[in-house]
Amino acid sequence: MECYDRPDLWDFAFSDETDFEADFIQQMASRWLNTNRPAVLEIGCGGGRQTVNLAMRGLPVTAFDLNPTCVRETQRRLKRRRLAANVFSANMLDFQTSETFDLAHCLVNTFRHLTDERSAQCHLQAVARALRPGGLYLLGFHLLPPDAAEEDCERWTLRRGKKSVTVTVRVLQFCRRTRLETVRFSLKATLPSGVIRLRSDHQLRIYRADQFRSLLRAVPEFELLSVHDFCYDADNPLPLDDQLGDAVFVLRRRG
Q1: How many CB atoms within 10 Å of residue 187?
Q2: What pLDDT is recorded for position 103?
Q3: Coil, strand, or helix at residue 141?
Q4: 143 contact partners, CB below 8 Å, separation of at least 6
Q5: Residue 183 β-bridge partners
Q6: Where would I find the H helices in 34-162?
Q7: Domains of the chain, with CATH numbers?
Q8: Quick one: which of 135, 136, 123, 138 has its CA closest to 218?
Q9: What pLDDT band is residue 151 in, cutting at 50, 70 and 90?
Q10: Half-sphere exposure of 245 (CA within 13 A, CB side)
């Protein structure tokens, strides 16, 4: 079983970030859209941790994920809390929506699953079609500094009561020429009922700051408003340069 097939555990590992992300979403909406209750499209919703959080804050939310297990988990969590949101299964490459939104977000590296330039361009164009003119896209993922080590490993543990989840992220293969890396995600959950271990390998695309700038030039539907990091400090934008590792881009649809 892969990590994404237990979205409840995967979401738990990131749950400390949920309110910081939601605060940032509302702050950007207030700053650029003059509202703190934008109509939101969530791209790659996972198990619904942010979908549920935004719905609890009173925002109208639509969310999708490619994995049907994630969609079902999100719908289950919404139903349990008697919250309303439109949740469906779709591919972030070429999704379509029947309505347009004030703001879309994809904050936790999901974008790097698109492993070539054309796919990345198609995704951004699909997001632009889903946004109203002047709408925002908050896009977060890791950038690679030019001097970064090719071998990398990150591990963290989140504990709450009798439940703990440890996630290990390890780079298995890395190629600057093809701009691809193979990353292994390992999850260990310690629960009152026992221990669960999950593991999955994924190929992700590598971006430097200049490579993301080049991508944006190929998608004139968007302009870059500001750059932040995973601290989600709305009042202190950062330069888009080779020192930036964890990046959150605030893009605005032109027109």
Answers
A1: 22
A2: 98
A3: strand
A4: 207, 208, 209, 212, 244, 245, 246, 247
A5: 171, 202
A6: 49-56, 68-80, 117-130
A7: 3-144+207-253 (3.40.50.150), 153-205 (2.20.25.110)
A8: 123
A9: low
A10: 4
In the prediction, which pLDDT does 149 show? 67
For the record, the structure tokens of 165 come out as 């989840």
Determine the distance from the C-alpha atom of residue 192 to the mean position of all C-alpha atoms in its chain, rounded to a whole number: 30
* Beta strands 222-228 and 101-106, pairing class: unpaired
| Residue 200 identity (one-letter amino acid) | S
Q: How many residues does the chain have?
A: 255
Distance (Å, whole) CA 157 – CA 32:
35
Please, where are the H alpha helices in 6-67? 7-13, 18-33, 49-56
Comparing C-alpha atoms, which of 155, 12, 148 is closest to residue 77?
Answer: 12
Distance, CA of 254 to chain centre: 22
Q: What is the mean pLDDT of residues 18-26?
A: 98
